[in-house]
Amino acid sequence: xTFQSILFERPAVTDALEAPAFFGDLHLDQIVExxxxxxxxxxxxxxxxxxLNDLDAIIYRQEIMRELESNVLIEEISAFSKQMRxxxxxxxxxxxxxxxxxxxxxxxxxxxxIYCAGVEQLSKALSALDLKSPGFRAFxxxxxxxxxxxxxxxxxTQTQRLQSDLSVIRYGLLIRDGGVTVRxxxxxxxxxxxxxxxxxxxxxxxxxNYMPDHLRTMSKRRCRTE
Length: 226
Hints:
The structure is a single chain. This protein has a two-stranded antiparallel ribbon. Helices cover 60% and strands 5% of the residues. Helix 5 (71-96) runs antiparallel to helix 6 (101-127). The chain is mostly helical. It is built from ten helices and two strands, in the order ααααααααββαα. The protein has a domain at 22-167. It has helices at residues 22-25, 28-36, 45-49, 55-67, 71-96, 101-127, 134-147, 150-167, 192-198, 213-225, and strands at residues 171-176, 179-184.
């Protein structure tokens, strides 16, 4: 079975679909609005407008939904969905930094890392599950082929290399007169030990007992007798 969609066994056109006339009469438009309220950016409503007129297509969808009754599977799908939403948020941030080239590129790199990690995690999770529905099995096979493809492996390698290169960059911050200057690292000394020694005398100590010795002895005897 060739994977087409988790919703449709065969290719389906949902673009520009409008709600059928009977949706308003049955208040189905309100139900769809409530279901998709937290996912506006995905434009999910047209998928609810697409009618399934074929028995096989209905069974295909029902088996998918039955599979999602598994707590383990639904948790993995939910985790993947959250990662993809975070990825899109990073891409949206990148678009806001038109005047800051490197900030934009850093946001894009973070989005790529989130995407790669999410896809690999989902592929691994689905491979460990005993899936029953043809739709999910086809999706698992498709995902396994994708994560082992040259395109995806190159993307993973490139993002990891860029992250590694960025992690070794060192720079200095000069804070003076209410301004911050970023400059090349000039191998300044590590002042952490000096600072620690300077503030050692301010280190909090345990509470000191100021009770006289004879009263302290009497208190201990009283505790033993009680």
